[in-house]
Write a structure and sequence with these properties.
By secondary structure, this protein is α/β, with parallel strands linked by helices. It has 13 helices and 15 strands. It starts with a helix and ends in a 12-residue tail after the last helix. Residues 169-422 form the Gfo/Idh/MocA-like oxidoreductase bacterial type C-terminal domain.
Amino acid sequence: MEKTNSSRRDFIKKSLIGAAAFSIVPRHVLGGKGYLAPSDHLTKGVIGVGSMGRGHFKYAGTKTVAICDVDTSHLELAQKALGGGVKEYHDFRDLIQDPSVDIVHIATPPHWHGIMAVEAARAGKDIWCEKPMTRTIGEGKKVMEAVAQHGNIFRLNTWFRFDAKFYGMNVPVKKIKKLVDTGLLGWPLKVTISKHTGFDWKFYWVGKENLPVEQVPKELDYDMWLGPAPFKPYSRHRTHTTFRGYWDYDGGGLGDMGQHYLDPVQYFLGKDNESPIKIEVDAPQQHFDAVGTWRKITYTYADGCQIILDGEGSEVGKAYIEGPKGKLYRGFVSDIPDLERKLAQYPDPEPQMTDFVEAVRTRQKFALNEINGYYSCTLVNLGLAALRLNRTLHYDSAKQEFVNDEAANRLINQPMRGPWTI
């Protein structure tokens, strides 16, 4: 009996030591959604560990336990950044199915976002996705449907609607939202997004025509990098840091910065469940492969509100927001007398859930989620559709499709290269 008790004590002692040594336990082991490990950390797997993916390894309250990339040089750099010992995957589907992963962080080029987000949702993972949410409107709808069906927590990684000073306005978006809600500017409103109001459209993200065919680097699985995109011969400029210049993977400066700039506008205009009904474009004819520049894109809503994207900087001296009762300029300067005193008399906007770990813990929707993120990404994709077709488009906001325009509607659900589907 004494020998048995001694053995039992030794077993318990060793078990406690082992438990203390391994304090990061995936939420799934502890009972599924809403349960956190004793360390109060959630486990995370990052797909795409180039410079963007590596920059998000150490988000507070999370522990990176798995990484995935189709470029072995990226994996080597990621392991060094993490101190080694992290699980590596070549195929994102293997990372998604890893039971030790709670959160799937998608940091790939946008042509992969939709497929990966849907697969992660089906696997019961919570999702952190880089912007733009998806490369097409149709893929965004699929992500919304998958998250709704499986009950995941989804975060889109552009934070300006709830955090940080908003580019040239030099104040948080909450203050702009408060001003708009007071009605002091009147209605409808016109918002101009231009270098003169503090927003850079990054027109260095343009593609090159007649790219040279080059040897695929030995460290890169180019076929897997392309995935659902049409096959094009390898050229270095088509991949990694310059992929944004090609329609197959992104949409130039608008694809890169559009959701950063437009999501807060959608929020303070109260358009989180609505799309514009007309999209006008002033631009050179675009190349079929390489993204070019544009002069102006104008969105008009059913109530008369407008968003103007000034690409060439022609809107000199324009207000950031213009209404029938007043204007708001760069730096939160207004022609409304005594604005700060007047604003102080009004309530602040409703609080938002801005802590992703807390959202996962309590199963509350994150401030920028799959629904409002879909609508702000749709703003980007509507502009890109008008740009590619180089003409005015009319859009049915309720049906989320173009009006009597077969060519434009084909851009909503674009074909994928087999065997990939969503």
